[in-house]
């Protein structure tokens, strides 16, 4: 669907935001009650909730703590803008930071240009100091609430272009006919092939006639005259789930070769040492399986959908685009390997102990016979 350049340039954005999210794994788990207590001295915290739907329709499993943070001045290729900053802390170890860049009154072409400058300055490929500083500031503030802080920090980035007011009322279909949103979604300067344009616009959703959400794997365009933020929140949760599942996937990737090496060492140990090696390794693997299973269940239940069909569709599409089911399946496969290995090790340890017990019994019988003969 091509919007003419003339029509696009005639559109003026009156209000909107560019939001860049950076979600970082900072710990194995986070005590949210303690986070609230630690931050209480600085500012009032709150728990996130979806604002426009009944509480029973779609809820957070354990709502993240919303940390109020002061705005910051950022420069985007010569233009300095005061940007809002927010952070959500999730109980399964994720910190979701967001920088909110107000658009002000701009032509559509100026919006596209600003989005590219923002992306270059603080987007997914950027190592802007503001992110590291913000993360460090929050980690230091909530440090006592972190269980097993992460030494290496995986991250996920996502960008959102939110338009709230165009100065005229357009339906979603009219907007797509009059405005070319593809440059915002692709980040490309050159015209794209029609097949790829169609692919970028494939995942689009509307609840009312005059709202629109278009999702891609690394950014989204949202036209929302009422200022609702539920779609933004849902996309953040989906990205946080992806991040944590990636963490467990990489954890198990590192664990499997080590597990195989330890099994080999245990097999080459002799007698009582072998049984102890097998038992120790079995206990460690059992603990690993229990921990990963517990945390992945918390991740899976981060957002519970019951009745809101629209947000459920958006959420499901986001999970698919982010390949969350694929990563979850990989984690499950690796957990199954660890479980099977644990079972085999437990049986091996039991077998070795039984063999040792049999040998001990035979030795006792021999000793008893010898003593009887000598007596």
Q: If you had to describe this structure to a student in words, what would you say it looks like?
A:
With 375 residues, the chain is an alpha+beta fold. It has two domains: 219 residues, no CATH class; 129 residues. It is built from eleven helices and 16 strands. The strands form four sheets. Strands 2, 4, 6, 7, 8, 9, 12, 13, 14 and 15 form a ten-stranded mixed sheet that branches. It has a two-stranded antiparallel ribbon with strand order 1-10. A two-stranded antiparallel ribbon has the order 3-11. β13 and β14 form a beta hairpin. α8 packs across α10 and α9 packs antiparallel against α11. The longest helix is centred in the last third of the chain and has 51 residues. It is elongated and about 115 Å long. The relative contact order is 0.14. The mean pLDDT is 84.
Furnish the topology, listing elements before pairings.
Elements: H1 5-10, E1 12-13, E2 15-25, E3 27-30, H2 32-40, E4 46-47, E5 58-60, E6 65-68, E7 72-76, E8 79-89, E9 94-102, E10 106-107, H3 108-122, H4 129-142, E11 146-149, E12 155-165, H5 172-178, H6 182-186, H7 194-200, E13 204-205, E14 212-215, E15 219-223, H8 230-268, H9 271-300, E16 303-305, H10 309-321, H11 324-374
Helix pairs in contact: 8-9, 8-10, 8-11, 9-11
Separation of termini?
A: 104 Å
Overall number of domains: 2
Report the sheet-strand fraction.
15-25%
Helix/strand order: HEEEHEEEEEEEHHEEHHHEEEHHEHH
Largest sheet: 10 strands, mixed
Give the low-confidence spans: none
Mean pLDDT: 84
Rg is 28 Å
Number of strands: 16
- Counting DSSP H or I runs of 4 or more residues, the number of helices is 11
Structural class: alpha+beta
Helix coverage percent = 40-55%
**What coarse outline follows from CA principal-axis ratios?**
elongated
């Amino acid at each position: 669907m091509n919007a003419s350049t003339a029509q696009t340039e005639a559109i003026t954005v009156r209000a909107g935001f560019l939001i860049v999210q950076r979600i970082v794994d900072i710990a194995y788990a986070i005590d949210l009650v303690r986070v609230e207590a630690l931050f209480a001295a600085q500012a009032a915290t709150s728990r996130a909730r979806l604002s426009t739907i009944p509480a029973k329709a779609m809820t957070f499993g354990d709502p993240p703590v919303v940390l109020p943070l002061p705005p910051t001045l950022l420069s985007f290729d010569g233009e300095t803008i005061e940007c809002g900053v927010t952070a959500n802390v999730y109980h399964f170890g994720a910190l979701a930071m967001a920088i909110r860049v107000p658009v002000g009154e701009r032509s559509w072409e100026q919006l596209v240009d600003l989005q590219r400058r923002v992306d270059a300055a603080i987007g997914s490929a950027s190592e802007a100091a503001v992110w590291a500083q913000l993360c460090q500031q929050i980690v230091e503030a909530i440090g006592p609430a972190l269980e097993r802080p992460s030494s290496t920090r995986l991250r996920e980035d996502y960008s959102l272009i939110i338009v709230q007011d165009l100065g005229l009322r357009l339906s979603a279909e009219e907007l797509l006919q009059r405005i070319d949103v593809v440059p915002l979604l692709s980040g490309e300067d050159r015209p794209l092939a029609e097949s790829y344009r169609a692919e970028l616009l494939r995942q689009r959703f509307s609840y009312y006639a005059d709202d629109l959400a278009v999702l891609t794997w690394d950014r989204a365009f949202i036209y929302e005259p009422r200022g609702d933020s539920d779609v933004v929140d849902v996309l953040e949760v989906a990205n946080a789930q992806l991040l944590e599942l990636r963490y467990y996937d990489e954890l198990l990737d590192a664990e499997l070769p080590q597990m195989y090496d330890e099994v080999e060492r245990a097999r080459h140990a002799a007698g009582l040492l072998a049984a102890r090696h097998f038992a120790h390794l079995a206990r460690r693997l059992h603990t690993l399986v229990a921990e990963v299973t517990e945390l992945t269940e918390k991740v899976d239940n981060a957002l519970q959908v019951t009745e809101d069909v629209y947000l459920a569709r958006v959420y499901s599409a986001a999970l698919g685009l982010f390949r969350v089911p694929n990563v979850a399946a990989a984690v499950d496969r690796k957990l199954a390997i660890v479980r099977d290995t644990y079972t085999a090790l437990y049986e091996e340890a039991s077998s070795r102990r039984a063999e040792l017990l049999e040998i001990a019994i035979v030795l006792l019988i021999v000793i008893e016979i010898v003593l009887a003969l000598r007596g």
